[in-house]
Structure formats: C-alpha cells, structure tokens
Amino acid sequence: MSSPRVVLYGRVGCHLCVEARAVVADVCARTGTEWTEVDVDDAPPAGGRDLLEEYGELVPVVEVDGVRHAWWHVDGEALRRALVGR
Description:
single chain, alpha+beta, Glutaredoxin, 3 helices
C-alpha cells in the first residue's frame, strides 16, 4: 500500500484547518488522489521530525509528495495543478 500523495497537517479547533480540509477533500476526490490528515498536537516525533515544532504556527499545512505546498490558506486550483501537472 502506498502513502497518500497529500498530507494535511492541522489541529482540532482551527477554523483555517476546517477550510483547508474541505478544499483538500474536494480536490483529491476530483483528481482521485489519496490524502490523509495529521494532527500536529498529537503526532509523536518520527523520522527526526517534530511536527508540532515544525508546523505549529503554520497550520494548516499541505504537503504534496513530501514537499510543502501551502500553509494557512489552500488554493484549490493550485493544489489541483500540483496533482495533475497542468
């Protein structure tokens, strides 16, 4: 099983995270792309990354294929282009 191409890093109670989740879910559904969400407040450090330290002030953060794509605001069209290449 492969890892999802899109990861949304956020936290509970974050209104921007709610908005980002809606955009990511919509774009990924339309492009057939797997995605997952990680709560930075609950994620244990892994692979040398402390997600709370790395993303705590930036959430929501979206990574595409392991590369930071957006933070605070997720532009649906930009995310779609990143996923389909056009």
